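Re: the 324-residue chain
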Amino acid sequence: MYEKKSHLIQYPTYGHDPDESQKSKPVHKKVLMITHDPVLKTKNSVKVKEYFNWNDSDALADAYIEDVKWASYGYANYEVVDRIVVDGYPVKRDGFQYDEHSYLKAWKKHDFHDPDGVDYLKLVEEFNMIERVNSGEIDEVWLFGHPYGGYYESIMAGPKAFWCNAPALQGTEHAKRQFVIMGFNFERGVGEMLEDLGHRAESMLFQVYKGMEGKPNNLWERFLRIERDMPNKSEVGSVHFSPNSVKDYDWGNPNPVLSYCDNWYNFPDLSGEPRRVDCSEWGNGDIRLHHLWWFRHMPHIIGERDGILSNWWEYIIDSNTVTV
């Protein structure tokens, strides 16, 4: 029997809410959620995620919504306004499409179709994404699917689309505004979903600070500092690197290092002294807890500094706020 699992958690004590006078007005974003979850007729007509006992996409989405709201101090509020479940496999960019037999065979042999990437324009057309964005019905799209479904973690569409952990989606320039299509794998968990959002955030902020590389007022570069690259000057790090990481995904590193990470909770005052931190600060290697810790350090108050918003979440949630 397939059992729907809850992915809601009790949140750790990362950061503190800003004063009401410093809080940005919350935003509400509408999501079209599409899940490719084909029925396996040769396996008692159960759906693919049921057969492999993978996660329920609705439960993942609900937990992710709560995580993003908490991580952004209540600023980012997502609502799934339409949930579509597709009994089928997405078409790859070369026209290939799995069926039940070919997917199960590929899974058994661990020999999957190449190229893996989906035909995004076909998905955009099939689900009227641009029309729905133009009408204001939706603001972004979440794709859920099985392993080797072919989704990027995120990709941006629209008239001024830019790199969003994937090349800008050409052929969508007739949209009235940019929108992001997220790609989630229901074999994985909420931590991996937050990783997708983290790389989206990195893409947005590299664009925001474009042209300021190496300058003292590039706060994004400062935020990313780690001990490995700048001894005794680490700050918060990136999605893949905590302050003491020596390699990708090294979130469980127990070695203490000096870090200025606490200062970001007091933004714009970054003048505090460093202290020694290790992986116990961000969940001892847990992907979800690290990413929540990372997000909670981002500037999240009203105002500007050097012409850049002091609430980085405005850029992360709405790419139309980013100057191209």
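The mean pLDDT is 97.
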